[in-house]
Prior knowledge:
alpha+beta, two-stranded parallel sheet, 2 helices
Amino acid sequence: MRVVMIALLPVLALGFAASAANPVSAPFQGSWQRCDTYRGDRVCSYALTTQRGNRVCGVESYFASGRLYYLRFVGTAEGSSVRIDKICGRPGSETDTHCADQAPRYRDSTEKVGWGTSTDMRHVCKGRLHEGRRGKPFSCATAVRDAGIPKVRRLTTDDGLEAEQRAWLASCTAGRE
């Protein structure tokens, strides 16, 4: 019996080493960024996301219609897709709700503050972050090669990603948004 146990120890050790070398996949852990030129200026859109288990937290910034928009979201990951459960930010195409700690002091009484709902999804495939809507099929196999925002090791600019956003992201990842 001891001989069998001694013979199995190296095999078990290799199994544990292999599982430690291949941690559970977290496709939404990282940074994505795309920069373009608008009227001679460099403008960048980015997403910075963290993942703990199936909980995904993110901050995003994008440029549209001559304005800079930002948002925060909390979502639930299912494989390489995340369903955005709640969202807030600068009201625009993604949300109609200001984040509570970032709402303008002087705003219209009809403007919403706090978390809003979303039908948005995000998908990671081929090193890119893609947007989608719930109920609309998305397949990495048919995704356009250059669509989506490419994953980067780190953001090349910190414009718009204040310490406040980073602090919120860390808090959200810990389960306190």
